[in-house]
Amino acid sequence: MKAARFIARVRREVRRMVASWTGEYQYTIDQVLENMVNRCNELNLRLARPEEHTKLDFTIMLTVQTMNYLHSGRHRVAL
Q: Do residues 18 and 67 lie in contact, with contact meaning Cβ atoms separated by under 8 Å?
């Protein structure tokens, strides 16, 4: 499965979880998600693990990237 498609499927749920953990607006997290989807499409990334394992890892990565986005003033995803 393509990574961008996976993100689209879990986007709403993961965005809500990260917003509740970090106290950040869902709109801010959605900007980070949009950048990640675009980058996944550019690199043609695909899932290498089962979706449930990937979902947990992705949620953690999104939390970290959101914090980086907020503290650096600009977003950088190292993929």
A: no
Which amino acid, residue 18? V
Q: Can you tell me the distance from the alpha carbon of 28 to that of 15, in angstroms, rounded to the nearest whole number? A: 10
From residue 45, give the alpha-carbon distance in Å to each of 24, 41, 42, 63: 27, 7, 8, 20
Asked whether 43 and 79 are in contact (CB, 8 A), the reply is yes
Tell me: the pLDDT tens digits for 4-29? 999 999 999 999 999 998 888 999 89
**Contact between residue 67 and residue 22 where contact means Cβ atoms under 8 Å apart:** yes
pTM: 0.82
Rounded to whole angstroms, the Cα distance separating 53 from 75 reads 25
Q: How many residues make up the chain in this entry?
A: 79
